[in-house]
Hints:
Layout (H helix, E strand, L loop, with lengths): L4 E11 L12 E10 L2 H11 L6 H11 L4 E10 L6 H11 L17 H9 L6 H33 L1 E10 L2 E9 L6 E5 L4 H7 L2 H7 L1 E3 L2 E4 L13
Parallel strand pairs: 6-8
Antiparallel strand pairs: 1-2, 1-3, 4-5, 5-6, 7-8
Amino acid sequence: MNKSKQFIYALYYYHFVNSQYHEEDSPDEIFFYIGRTANPEQRLKQHCYEAKHGTEDKYIFIRELQDKEIEWDLKILQEVESTDNRPWEFWHVIESIRNGYPLKNMRYGDFKQVSTNRLKTIADDRTITCIDGLKMRLEEDERESSTKYEKSIELQRRAILKSLRWLRIENEQNNGENRKWNIYDLGDGTEEIKAEYYMTKKEVAKCLTPAFKEALRKVKEKVLIVQSVNKPNQKQHRP
């Protein structure tokens, strides 16, 4: 198997449509899953194994096909270089949606999980006619999303900063080392916040926004400990 190659593939089944001229028309291939792999044969074996008990939508659908004695298989749609970072898998997802295929993907292509509304918007945009156009659109969406996220974090930080209240300084002996902490809270009845001494009040507020809080949160005796990931530039005194 050539490791420099990747394969975009579809899981599909045959659908026969009755015709007034023929007992049966030629069968249509109906895609129900788009994926990417370096080894199509091995990937098909994995799908067959997972189809027995897997809980993902595509495996539930496969069992429904098997109950109806409808065969399914894997078809290679495109071969791409592994170094090609264009969203080929996503492109085939969009093309499949445009063709009306009932995809059972839990996530769509090379990017993060995409909401149904966003996916429909992209599929309905007929100005996207090629892989490079799709790549450009996704990059624009990512930049816009990042900008909205940063604005949201800044608004949260400002709101927290208004409520952040300095209480006292605490000294702590740890393995022979003396450490200082600034103790804050967010108002009466809220948990205490233990922040490294050199951190500014603005830095503490930023660490309390949802995006940072989970990463930096360490609970000890119901006290929130906030630690900066950056080295101190100077010692902070009482805020």
